[in-house]
Amino acid sequence: MKITIKSTSKIVVLKAATLSDGVPARIWVGETESGIKVHCFVTRIAVAKNELRVDEFEKELLEQIPPTAEIETIPGRLIL
Fold first, then answer.
1. Given the DSSP bridges, would you call strands 77-79 and 3-15 parallel, antiparallel or unpaired?
2. Scanning 19, 23, 26, 49, which has the fewest C-beta atoms within 10 Å of its C-beta?
3. 15: which strand partners?
4. pLDDT of 17-75, one tens digit each?
5. Which of 38, 9, 41 is nearest to 22 (CA)?
């Protein structure tokens, strides 16, 4: 499966029963190649060790779109 996603400004905390404080995750929205809409909870993202354009990546990573109405209704803390 291939998806294209865009970073939003919405951050939630994912909390499992074994984690006391939870893990922050930024919500990204997008769609699959066939057009199915998705949202992703991204906790970490990194580039390969040999990537030469790290500065470009870090600049692009700061770009965010406002959350959609559907994403905005997701509570700030999610229990998994």
1. parallel
2. 49
3. 79
4. 776 688 999 999 999 999 999 999 999 999 999 999 999 999 999 999 999 899 999 98
5. 41
